[in-house]
Write a structure and sequence with these properties.
By secondary structure, the chain is an all-alpha fold. The chain has one domain (3-35, 43-134). It contains six helices and no strands. It has helices at residues 3-32, 51-55, 59-81, 87-117, 121-128, 131-134. The radius of gyration is 19 Å and the shape is elongated. The model is unreliable at 34-41 and 141-145 (pLDDT under 50).
Length: 145
Amino acid sequence: MNRLTKNLGIALVVSVVLNVFFLGFSAARYVRRGDGHPPSFESDADGSISMRSLWKRHAASLGARHEAIDAARQSVREALIAEPFQAPALERALASLRKETDETQVMLHRALVESAADMSLEERRRLADSRWVMGVVPRGGPHHR
């Protein structure tokens, strides 16, 4: 593998990782927008549970995680533009970013478990059928059993 191919491969991987995180945090900002009302399990237009209402009560802790990930992303950026380029520094920055995103994922899962515990069976079914659980485009409609 020549140097150009290796650098292009690294750039591609970093680009994909950063794009996934950008999209994830854009989605998180969208669902975290509050309207001043207490949290409830409202439904979206398609009848699925609104993730915004689920995450409102966890906004403080998730906001701190968002800041930690932003700092880790900034470290990745700095490692990428450092001259001379040092691959070990980029590897450390990416490892730090991975650690921060893993910890955030754990917190998001914990928030989901806590929220689901307060839901009725019908609300949990709507959440299970939501775009958040099933993907952006529901596959084959509702999956009630």
